[in-house]
Write a structure and sequence with these properties.
Length: about 50
């Protein structure tokens, strides 16, 4: 019984760790996309000023 509980806890911990890592990767991707959008907007403003 105790071995099953330990194994279940390990499985749950692994699943939570995987979910956390995936969530952090999504946050990183969103931050990068946001930074690229800001950069693109800045470039567009520069083009409008020069034209």
């Amino acid at each position: 019984m105790q071995d099953e509980a330990i194994e279940s806890k390990q499985t749950l911990t692994q699943a939570l760790t995987k979910a956390k890592d995936e969530f952090e990767a999504q946050i990183c991707a969103l931050k990068n996309a946001h930074a690229n959008e800001i950069k693109n907007n800045h470039e567009m403003r520069k083009l409008k000023i020069t034209n």
